[in-house]
Amino acid sequence: MHTTKQELPTLMETPDAVVQQQTDFGELPADTTLSAEHMQFTAGTDITPLLEGLPEDHCPVPHWGYVVEGEITIRYVDGSEETDRGGDVVYWPPGHTAVAERDTEVVLFSPQDDHREVFDHMAAKMEE
User: Mind telling me which InterPro entries this protein's record contains (predicted)?
Assistant: First the structure.
């Protein structure tokens, strides 16, 4: 699920500031700490092989974030996909993988402990 900043509803607007907010943009599990993550992907990067062995061979962690620049395709367990581009505010629910179509920069917020487990899994796959 994604939206552009132009599509975000305006919550408050003053002569000096504009606040836009998307509500109901994914659910956060109780007692979860979020981590902030800045990621850069080179064009052609496909993380799918690194997710093999996780539930349904996809990332089981939800992410909220912003695509700073580039283009990334998110593929879901159900076979659907979306392409997110620079300027998009995103929510990637559990059950996804990612392929960077171009050099891409994203900022994500993810449940810290769960995502650390995914990173550990991916690091182990890279050592195989």
Answer: RmlC-like_jellyroll (IPR014710), RmlC_Cupin_sf (IPR011051)
* 84/81 Cα distance (integer angstroms): 10
Question: What pTM was estimated for this model as a whole?
Answer: 0.80
Distances (CA, A) of 113 to 38, 80, 96, 120: 17, 27, 18, 11
d(CA 64, CA 112): 12
pLDDT digits (tens, 9 = 90+) for 68-114: 999 999 999 999 999 999 999 999 999 999 999 899 999 888 888 88
Query: Residue 23 corresponds to which tokens in the numbers above?
Result: 């509500």
Contact 20, 5 (CB under 8 A): yes
Contact by Cβ (8 Å): 67, 84: yes
> Which domains occur in the chain, in start order?
38-127 (2.60.120.10)
Q: What is the dihedral of CA 16, 108, 4, 100, to 10 degrees?
A: 140
